[in-house]
Amino acid sequence: MGRLTLKELRETLRDRRTILTLVLMPVLVYPLLGITFQKFFITQFAVQEPTEYHVGFESMEQAVEFRNAFSQGNQLLGREIRPGQPLPLKPGEPPDPSLNFIYPQPGDEFHLADAVAEGRLDLGVRIVAPSSSARQQFEFLVRSGSVLGRDARQFVTSRLQAVNDAFVDDYLQSQTPPVRQPFEWQQTSLGDSVASDFSLATLVPLVLILMTVTGAVYPAIDLTAGERERGTLEALIAAPISRRHVLFAKYIAVVAVALLTAMMNLSAMIATAYGTGLEQTLFGSAGLSLTLIVQIFGLLAVFAAFFSAVILAITSIARSFKEAQAYLIPVMLLSLAPGVLALMPGLELTAWLALTPLVNIVVLTRDLLDGHFPLGLASLVLGSSVIYAALALSLAARIFGTDSVLYGSSGTLSDLWQRPDHGRSTPTVIHGMIALGVLFPLFILLGGVPARLTDWSLTQRLLASSGITVLLFTAWPLALAWQTRLDIREGFGLTVAQPRAYLAALLLGVSLWPFAYELEIWTISPERLQALYELFRGFEVELRKIPIAWKLIALAFVPAVCEELFFRGYLFRVLRTTQGRWPTILITATLFGLFHVLVRDALLFERFLPTALMGLVLGWVADRTSSTTPGMLLHVLHNSLVLLLPDWLDQQDPLMSNHAQSHLPSWMIAVATIIAGLGWSAIPSLMPQPENSRERLEAE
User: Fold this and answer.
1) Of 201, 225, 229, 535, which is the most exposed, with the fewest CB atoms less than 10 Å away?
2) DSSP label at 85?
């Protein structure tokens, strides 16, 4: 295995395309990025010239009167400029605009309104009442659509308003006894200054991860799909060494190249930062220490180990170089999402994020650059990433070197869209990946559209949401099934199960919602629960006005049936042809939970765990009954009871309906446990589904 590892490293490192990615890209890209950011900061933080507003008057006397009133307001606001003293500015605060007074000279023809309308003046000022009266009135002339005119009017009126406020305060203080205004307030600014609200340090994890991904992709493709295409993979499989050791040697080579890429990129980034003077901007006020460099490189090593295992699992099923590239493009695009997520202000590393692949590494790297190192969460990030890498590598070992990969037809992408002459009973892995790859982006793009249709009633928006659910989770896989001549009944599991299966689904459907409710109570903090209540309060008020039948159809029946058709029907049978029982159940449950994290315009990570656990139950029922229909019944009942829960809680305890963290009565948990146990015990006596397609064929 050591010799094989050295052989893979030699072949990879002497390839010119690898050297280009490994050495030349960091050497060329980072200096260009450094110069670009340097120019950006010079432009942003250079001394700004004050804006000049052209203000016109009908006479010099009116200009003098207005100047006196304006200067009085400037003094009250502390903005008066004294001769020889610069105007004091706060950090990052632009200087005050200057006013250029324009008025007619004796004998000139000057029409104030025409000058403003033609754009020669930003603002026109007329004195309606003379200064000898008790109240001085100004009329402002602004050209419609003029941004400068609007800003000039706001600027001068703020000074006049300061004079009015001071007059009112003096009058109230002169009364006997003095009268005070009913309200007063003050503002305390906390944290850093405005200039430090945005930090380029948030971009560093995104750039480093993108470059590490780029370094690992090409070797992984070349050492798996490339070897198969060249016809050299068979010789390795025939060597006196196990397939797992062959794959592990390739894995070490891919990780080594990824680490070398990460090291080169990190070194080039550090050198560029010091050369351009951006070290504090990129790495915080404390700069970059040796300890921080070691910590960042350690996180990149963990990320490289995880991502290398993932892409090896994907490229191991590819039959050609181009096919592997087609598979990895969505993966590379998906890997950018965590880096973009780290740019979100106020995002903190929590236990949920620490368990989320890719996101945990990015957010932890960002926290390291900001000077924070939560030891407990960091350990959780490292441990979970190692576990995910081991699972991905184990999956790759199950696929790598199998007869279907070695000797299957390579074909082309156009072959996927040619309708076969004969039908089939189960969907292929390739078509399953296409179904999921198209469904995920469309779900993100279309899922939030009904919420933005504010002119529609809530009933219409719910119907639109139901239509999108039917289109994505039912119509799209059915179209693929028609294209591939897939038997709908077998390919989606629409077979009639034994009667006891429906009884078990009925019992589980009416008894699982208390456990989901209690799980949310234990995992969501009171502050987060209140924030979620504020987010969906308006939606719940509108929802209670809709007839219960419409709510059950749009929010319980349609989502349950359509989601079961896709997750436990089409996708379940895609995975079941190559995976065992529990890997299939775990994968579909995880995907089921991830899809439910996206709710309207928010990311509700709290929904993942209860939804994924429900996906495990539904997957287990689908596997034991060899049918999707019992899971549909279970899912519909569960959704219906969860939907009716707020109304029931409102009748039992108003505090519970207001989203207080109140637990359900103990008797209710006990009854639900008994009913769920009865439903659970009814399932194992049913005929289990064969482990894979070969066992199913033998059983038939």
Assistant:
1) 535
2) -
Classify residue 424 by its DSSP letter: B
| Pairwise CA distance, residues 602 & 444, whole Å | 11
Within this chain, do residues 143 and 56 fall inside the same structural domain, yes or no? yes
Number of other residues whose CB lies within 10 A of the CB of residue 285? 11
How confident is the model at residue 583, as a pLDDT? 86
Does the pLDDT value for residue 12 go beyond 50?
Answer: yes
Same domain, 403 and 419: no
**206 and 169 in one domain?**
no
Q: Is the dihedral of CA 217, 218, 223, 228 positive or negative?
A: positive
Average pLDDT, integer, range 260-264: 84
CA dihedral 243, 246, 251, 256 (to 10 degrees): 170
**Residue 616 token pair:** 């495990």
The alpha carbon dihedral of 604, 606, 608, 613 has a sign of: negative
DSSP letter for 557, please. Answer: I
Beta strands in 237-305 (DSSP E): none
- Position 143 in a domain: yes
Please, what's the largest Cα pairwise distance for the chain?
109
Grouping H, G, I as helix, E, B as strand and the rest as coil, residue 56 is strand
- Among 166, 208, 6, 198, which residue's Cα sits nearest to residue 78? 166
**Pairing outcome for strands 598-599 and 602-603:** antiparallel
Is 287 domain-assigned?
yes
Q: Mind listing the pLDDT tens digit for each residue in 142-173?
A: 988 788 888 889 888 988 888 888 888 888 88
Q: What is the pLDDT of residues 167-186, one digit of tens each?
A: 888 888 888 788 777 777 76
Task: Calculate the alpha carbon distances from 152 to 57, 62, 156, 161, 258 in Å.
Answer: 14, 18, 6, 14, 56
Q: How confident is the model at residue 603 (pLDDT cuts 50, 70, 90)?
A: low
Is the domain of 399 the same as that of 424?
A: no
Burial of 682 (0-12, 13-18, 19+ CB in 10 A): buried
CA 442 remoteness from chain centre: 15
| Rounded CA separation 80/204 (Å) | 43
Helix boundaries (H) for 422-570: 429-447, 449-452, 458-470, 476-483, 488-491, 499-511, 513-523, 526-543, 548-552, 558-563
* Cβ-count burial 14-42 (b if 16+ within 10 Å, e if not): ebeebeebbeebbeebbeebbeebbeeee
Rounded-to-integer distance, Cα 428 and Cα 433, Å: 9
Tracing tokens 């632009």 back to the chain, one arrives at 94
Tokens of 575: 């995975």
Residue 422 included in any domain: yes
What is the chain's percent helix, strand, coil content, to nearest 5?
Answer: 70, 5, 30
